Amino acid sequence: FCYNDTKKNCEKYGVFYTAQTAVRVCPEGWSLPTKNDWNMLAVNIGVVSSSSGNAYVYSDENAVLKLKSETGWNSDNGTDELGFSAFPAGQFDGTNYTGFGEKAYFMGSAYSGGDGEYAYITKNSLTATGVRGISSKLAMPVRCVQTLPCNSSNQGEIVSTSICDESKWRFLTLEDLYGECSSENNGEISKDKIYVCDNLKWRKFTSLENEIGLCLKN
Question: Potential cystine with 188: which of 87, 152, 170, 197 (Cβ 3.0-4.6 Å)?
Answer without folding.
Answer: 197
